[in-house]
Structures are given as structure tokens and as C-alpha cells.
Amino acid sequence: MREDWELLDRWRDGDKRAGAELLKRYFGLLSRIFYNKVASQEDAADLVSDTLLACTMNKDRVRDGANFRAYLTSIALNQLRQYYRKRSKRKREREDFLSCCVADLDTPLSPSSRLARRREEYLLVQGLRTIPLEYQLVLELNLFEGLNGREIAELLDVPSATAYTRLRRAREQLTRAVERISINRAEYQSTVTSLAGWAEQIRGRMKPEA
Description:
- It is a single chain.
- The protein is mainly α.
- Helices cover 69% and strands 0% of the residues.
- The chain has eleven helices and no strands.
- The chain has helices spanning 4-12, 16-35, 41-58, 68-87, 111-115, 119-129, 133-143, 149-156, 160-181, 185-192, 195-206.
- The protein has one domain (4-206).
């Protein structure tokens, strides 16, 4: 496999096959980053395209030795920030973007919510939408992408201790969120004792196609 940066350079120089290969590598990751945070699959697809386009435009600003996935993720989060600012009925320019919850950002029921076939899956998706984005993001990277704290730290370009702390706090907040929206103790217990299993079921139905 050619290096990601090389593919990006070739794509910028007009090599469409290099662009297609890069899209194939990262379309799934990007789609899942946007999937539970935007109003529709069409919006998610547009954000994926916008992110990849921004990658080609901003590449010259990247320091040597930078991690491509981290670069890509930072651009994706910036695209998501702009998306919320455009859609929001309230001005959020001064608001800390990652401290907000998706449920508070004027975004209707997500595509992931509609994919949920079990009550536990629905509780997981909705619970994620009620915790701050910085925690939702790390927990989805863990549950949907299978990344550990060290890998999340590398992807988000933060210290490992920060990533592990966010991951721990994210699980605590999600557990409390699921407890709040559960109808009874049984479905709460069923959800929180198998978060990874329910996430795997949802991820299997996403199946994004470039």
C-alpha cells in the first residue's frame, strides 16, 4: 500500500485513481465520525467530500512527520463545527464546540438512531448524543473503530493520559445518560453491560459505500 501522503500528493496532481484509493481507505472512518452527529446520510456524505477536498487544500500547512489520520480527523471536526454553525438557530461562534452535546445543537434524529433495531441499540445511540462531543467522539472511536486510548490519543493529537481520561469520563457519562432514558433497570443493565456488542451490531448496518 502506498503511503497516504503520497496518495494525497498524487491526487492533487490530478491522479484520480490515487484519490479513489484514499477515499476507499478512509470513507468508512469519516462516515462513522459524522454518522451520529448530523441530520441525514446525505449530509454525512457531503461532509466526507468536503473533508477530503479540504485535505488537498491544506496539505502544505502540515508539519513533516504528521500522522495522516490525525490530520484527516482534525479537518473532519472542523467541517462538523462549520456544519453546526450553519444549521444552528442560535449563534455559537463563542461557544466551545466540543463541550456541546449533539442533542442540544438543533440536529434531529440521526441516521444511526434509525438503524437501531433493538432497544439497547437505540439507548446507546441516543445516550451518545446527550454527552459532550469531546466524550462522544472518543467513545465512538473506541466502540465503533476499536481504538484504544493510545491510538485515540494519536488520532486526536492529544497526550495519552488525556485520551484515557476522556474515555473513562465518557463511559461514566454515557452510563448515566442511558440510566436516565431507560424505561426500567433491566434494559439499562442490558445496554451498559454490552456496549461493545451493541455498537458492533449498529456498525455492521452502517456499511458505507464510497
